[in-house]
Amino acid sequence: MKVAILYICTGKYDVFWNIFYNSSERHFCESVKKHYFVFTDSKKIESSENTTVIYQDNLGWPFNTMYRYKMFLRVKAELLGFDKVIFFNGNCLFNQNISYESFFGENKNIVACIHPGFYNKSKKEYTYENRVQSLAFIKDSYFYVQGAINGGNAEDFIRICEELATNIDKDLENGIVAIWHDESHWNAYLNNNYEKIKDSLHILSPSYLYPEGWDIPFDKKIILRDKNKYGGHESLRVGSHISLKSNLFRRFLSRIRCK
Question: Strand pairing partners for 92?
Fold first, then answer.
């Protein structure tokens, strides 16, 4: 079995790479062959036998996260050569041994993880995109997952990436940015298609996205490192913020419309 690991670290987010990589090599799916696809503008990260660096411009916030599905499709041909494809947030730290079977599930095609901030909340408290004009609008509510883990069988995940990338572009054409960007679209896909995909969907507990410094009733299998220790969200995004009213944003929309 072969697993492709997708990782984005543009701008200052490259500070997380070494610990992510070393902890993954030590704890994640040790029994299978892993290859990392790193989308970055950093000169500190280099390709190696098990790592492919794909140069990625710093698109600014929120495009660095919202355009993740477009980024992944840049290496579509390569990813189709793997059994499983999985994306992890840049600040993930593998804290315990995680087997291939426990993470990807048995005979499952899609992997997602319950958001640790919503595991004990009612559906009314889920922060879904609530504008019916958006393609991230959710008709049927079952759960709220975090965008920090996306993946599954290579062919299935590529198909989902294509659909979500298209939906995000269509929203932008209509002047809409979903409330939580790619996470909103990921939730929409899983919830709106739940009855069709439920038998092939493997949903992980918050053990696999345990925020550093929190106290919730789960094992700490994967820790989300506290970004405040690295200057916080705003500091990490310095030089990578795009106003949705800026000329750069308008150029993005212009390119989409041209396509």
Answer: 224
Tens digit of pLDDT for each residue in 97-140? 999 999 999 999 999 999 999 999 999 999 999 999 999 999 98
Q: Are 142 and 191 in contact (CB under 8 A)?
A: yes
- CA 63, CA 174: separation in Å to the nearest integer? 16
d(CA 91, CA 13): 8
* 142: containing domain: 2-258
Question: Nearest Cα to 138, choosing from 73, 76, 183?
Answer: 183
Domain count within the chain: 1
| Residue 63: CATH number of its domain | 3.90.550.10
Residues whose CB is less than 8 angstroms from the CB of residue 136 and which lie 6 or more positions away in sequence, other chains included: 128, 129, 167, 171, 178, 179, 184, 185, 187, 188
pLDDT given for residue 227 in this prediction: 80
Q: Which helix (H) or strand (E) holds 163?
A: helix 154-173
pTM of the entire predicted model: 0.90
Contact (Cβ atoms closer than 8 angstroms) between residue 110 and residue 149: no
Contacts of 164 (CB under 8 A, 6+ apart): 69, 182, 185, 186, 189
